[in-house]
């Protein structure tokens, strides 16, 4: 492997960095790398699902056009993940002058210290190679962020130690934006940034330079600016001033997954369900689908505040809690393997309630009640999709004949299956729901979990009843009491 240049003279021997070679900005660099990836058919944002036909092409357009852009979307729509994924469009390494606070290009130094160093040492100027991950700077906008934090300020301590006047360019303290030079600078939740700081971004976005307080020096930084914002928070938490929006090259709207399948793919990727050092936990596909359906129903429920949205973090956290509940039950029952059940989904309600912003009607009913209703409706929808046109009448008749079934939440798979086998036809439907009939689908844990899901589905469709005290049962119609004959008043006789 050829050794990398360590001095300016060695660097200039490479064609890309030879004297007179065309200047290549960070936006040019990203543009070239994106075009190469597109030509090679490589994934541009691995791990981001559901945006292949909508958001990602718009981001690629913005990068190819060398635009600064903003992502607008509700919470939990992968905005920060996308911004952090932009670093993959940078070169693996890039040369910088050693010791420079703003990572100056060896051929085009900006700061006074680097210009003096190159003038003094020439071809012997030391350089370092900076990796792409270090070229991404992110700042969460909060009301206490100052101009000095973003742009910089006079550093009296540096001036005192060096014996220089405060107006000397070498006494500058650089903020986050100059330190992101030759890289990507991201601001999350832009509306929370004070208006005067947003005004300070005008120059860098239009003219490409910044001016640090107290110095008559403009630094032509080489940086790509990207932002995120929640469009529904503008009035409550601040706003993006109009001139700043006008200077953004693209405004790209993100969205929640369009289908349950897309949501399941995201949740499966992000949720921590493969755990070591404990019982093996299986989460059936129908239960994963139910977890995702809870989020979809919440986004459409009128009692849930649509302006806040239902984050994709809800099904992720919910699935992790379902796994933990099954893990806890398996440990108590000394089971080496366990299958997650509907009871585990109800045990995961705390992972749901905290992520629902309710309207007035929902507040009256309470977050837990709303969450339980969402779970019940989600079970009903998945039950209908998975087992359409199935005759459940024998099961319903068993309950109507006086049968009752209550399965403790901590019951082992074997105990639960033993109780369920007394219901005619239930195990057959459970095996059909649980899989293709293989060994996994016929294991006690899989069959008992699927059987419980069938019973919960029948309850969600009001075929049977359920309560915390009695478990599953049939609500028989009350016999009507005989009505006493009413005496008609005698007819009046008219002469």
Plain-language structure description:
By secondary structure, this protein is of the alpha/beta class. Helix content is 43%, strand content 12%. The chain is built from 24 helices and 15 strands. The protein has helices at residues 8-11, 26-40, 55-64, 79-85, 112-121, 147-150, 156-162, 176-179, 195-200, 202-206, 234-237, 242-247, 260-270, 285-300, 313-332, 342-347, 350-353, 360-365, 367-386, 393-400, 413-420, 426-434, 439-442, 444-460; strands at 69-72, 93-97, 127-131, 136-140, 152-154, 172-174, 183-188, 210-211, 218-219, 223-229, 250-253, 280-282, 337-339, 465-467, 471-473. Strand 14 (465-467) and strand 15 (471-473) form a beta hairpin.
Provide key terms for this protein.
single chain; 495 residues; alpha/beta; Rossmann fold; 2 domains; two-stranded antiparallel ribbon; 15 strands; 43% helix; elongated
What percent of residues adopt helix (DSSP H or I)?
40-55%
Oligomer: single chain
CATH level 4 superfamily of the largest domain: P-loop containing nucleotide triphosphate hydrolases
**Spatial arrangement of strands, main beta sheet:** 4-7-10-1-11
Low-confidence stretches: none
- What is the straight-line distance between the termini? 128 Å
DSSP strand count: 15
Secondary structure: elements and pairs:
Elements: H1 8-11, H2 26-40, H3 55-64, E1 69-72, H4 79-85, E2 93-97, H5 112-121, E3 127-131, E4 136-140, H6 147-150, E5 152-154, H7 156-162, E6 172-174, H8 176-179, E7 183-188, H9 195-200, H10 202-206, E8 210-211, E9 218-219, E10 223-229, H11 234-237, H12 242-247, E11 250-253, H13 260-270, E12 280-282, H14 285-300, H15 313-332, E13 337-339, H16 342-347, H17 350-353, H18 360-365, H19 367-386, H20 393-400, H21 413-420, H22 426-434, H23 439-442, H24 444-460, E14 465-467, E15 471-473
Helix pairs in contact: 13-14, 13-15, 14-15, 14-19, 19-24, 21-24, 22-24
